[in-house]
């Protein structure tokens, strides 16, 4: 037993004696290259040998997604920003470092262009670019492709809602440098962002996008920036189903009511129910559409004006019932020019039914005999009012009311057609 204990102690002592002489892991070519490149490097200074030299940054965008908040008038764009510039301190001979031609650096280890959004709407976010790694090539070129979120105000014009199109702009440029120290370059043969991996939005379709370089001069000093413009169109299928089509049904209900005789109870019922439905949809559209200042959406104007027209149609119906069915104690003939127009061809087309011409008769004092005479003469009251007719000109007044009703029908039809042409 003692022999085994002694052997164990001796072997443990030998291992302990060898431990201090174990060699540390050898330094790799990559770590040696990184150490040499970062020695004496100042990430807060522009990477040029002469301060008069201009740093040129090539910029491109790969669009990934977008979103537009109408109520807040805020537009969000998600993209990958491709930035390429030349860093004069990042240059080496690959043969001295195991033929390494490129090396990675963490975010903010090297100098980065101070690009920012001039019309930024995110007050809490100044750094718009994600902290991704940079790729440095032995030719001194630095490539940085950070994920980017731009949030800018976008004033929406909802007048054509839900068939509206919106244009949102983003201005990107250097915050501290002018064009003589940091110049922005864009690809000469490209004027639109790459949308190969674009994720469609459920509310908006991307119609077009452009980006261009713009240079402004202040005291003869150039200040370049990039202007991104995105044109969006609303996906209106669901809004058409729940807002526009009911408006068409309301218009059809009003026209059907005008086709009914003013004396019928169904006409008043249709108008009253349609007024209630119109009020509900007017409130719904007002709640669904954000407040847009002086530019009132046409669909909201449609339901507002339709409510006025319904109210006028209700008053019109009451007036026509009085005109056509009120019993007059003394004969009141129509003016000659109205009588002449009633006998004209356009009046016959508008009134559709044959004009009554045999309804002028004396009052017998018996309602039953009068109704029998009317049936025998083939001249029923076109309004169905059931009022005893002791006026020989009563049929003329009833037919005038019938003509006015047809004229109102044509006027309402034309107005609603104009409404829908303007809306669509």
CATH architecture descriptor name of the largest domain? Distorted Sandwich
Helical run tally: 9
| Percent helix | 25-40%
Task: State the domain count.
Answer: 2
Cα radius of gyration in angstroms: 42 Å
Hey, roughly how much beta strand do the residues contain? Answer: 15-25%
CATH first level of the largest domain: which class?
Answer: Mainly Beta
Query: Termini distance?
Result: 102 Å
Can you write the helix and strand succession as a string?
HHEEEEEEEEEEEHHHHHHH
Q: Based on CA inertia axes, which overall geometry fits?
A: rod-shaped
InterPro entries: Neur_chan_lig-bd, Neur_chan_lig-bd_sf, Neur_channel, Neuro-gated_channel_TM_sf, Neuro_actylchol_rec
Transmembrane segments: 243-261, 268-286, 306-324, 403-423
Membrane topology: Multi-pass membrane protein
Keywords: Membrane, Signal, Transmembrane, Transmembrane helix
Structure description:
It contains 9 helices and 11 strands. Helix content is 37%, strand content 22%. It has helices at residues 2-18, 29-38, 237-259, 265-288, 298-325, 336-342, 345-351, 367-376, 394-423; strands spanning 55-69, 74-86, 102-105, 115-117, 134-137, 141-144, 147-153, 165-174, 182-185, 204-218, 221-234. Helix 3 packs parallel to helix 5 (298-325). The protein is rod-shaped. By secondary structure, it is α+β, with helices and mostly antiparallel strands. The model is unreliable at 4-10, 14-24, 357-380 and 382-389 (pLDDT under 50). A hairpin with a 2-residue loop joins strand 10 and strand 11 (221-234). The strands form 2 sheets. Strands 1, 2, 3, 5, 6, 7 and 9 form a 7-stranded mixed sheet that branches. A 4-stranded antiparallel sheet has the order 4-8-11-10, with no helix packed on it. It has 2 domains: 33-235, Distorted Sandwich (Acetylcholine Binding Protein, Chain: A); 238-423. Keywords: Membrane, Signal, Transmembrane, Transmembrane helix. Its main location: membrane.
